[in-house]
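Table 4 source record.
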Amino acid sequence: MLATIALIILVSILLFISILHIYWAFGGKWASQDVFPVLEGNRQLLKAGYIPTIPTLIVAALLVVAAGLFLWYAGVIALALPEWIRSVGVWTVTGVFAARAIGEFRYVGFFKTVYNSGFARLDTRFFSPLCLFIAILALIVVIG
């Protein structure tokens, strides 16, 4: 029961984030402020307001694939692929989101050292906790 609830929430979040990325890729501006880290010295990683189309669509596609992997893992959908892809896939997605929550110890994650930007504040309050929540949900689905 808990694994089913976790699966529904997990897939919903992944698909919502994917749709948000598609929206951004095609020029949408809602919630697009401060989505990239700002480097030390207030140097912008990317030009303000610029969200690159192709990488953003790739992220959207990967999020859909992640949702599909968990649906496959839970037996909701059937795919004619080797079983090892299913296991490796769900563990990889779980690990990626856990690693994103932890961060690279400088600009992103709970253990970042650069805090003086809009991105850093959003990352602390929203992005990293969301990644940790996704990793926990994923773990519940995989173990449950």
